[in-house]
Design goal:
about 100 residues; 2 strands; single chain; mainly alpha; about 70% helix
């Protein structure tokens, strides 16, 4: 006879992490969009400003790609996790385990 099923704490932590990832991505997007809009609006005009704008655009693409990758990785791991697991397993005790790290 198997053990009692309990919520998968690892899955719960991943779901919470996805929410945090969304927040990070939004803050990055807002900051970089504001700087890009300021440059496009003529806040700074010079050869240095144009170079800065190109560099900023590259960093913006890199960070947005990293944010997308982070969310995709979390989503893929959540999809593999059952909502309930057997009591006593590491997934059932994940909340306790991660506080000991």
């Amino acid at each position: 006879m198997g053990e009692e099923k309990v919520p998968n704490q690892y899955r719960s932590a991943l779901v919470a992490g996805r929410s945090s990832a969304d927040g990070r991505a939004e803050r990055i997007r807002e900051a970089l969009n504001a700087a890009t809009l300021a440059l496009q609006g003529g806040a700074w005009e010079s050869p240095t400003a144009r170079e800065f704008g190109r560099t900023l655009a590259g960093h913006r693409r890199t960070l947005q790609s990293a944010a997308t990758d982070e969310r995709d990785i979390i989503d893929a791991e959540v999809a593999k996790q059952p909502e309930e697991v057997e009591e006593g397993t590491w997934r059932a005790n994940f909340a306790k385990l991660r506080h000991n790290i």
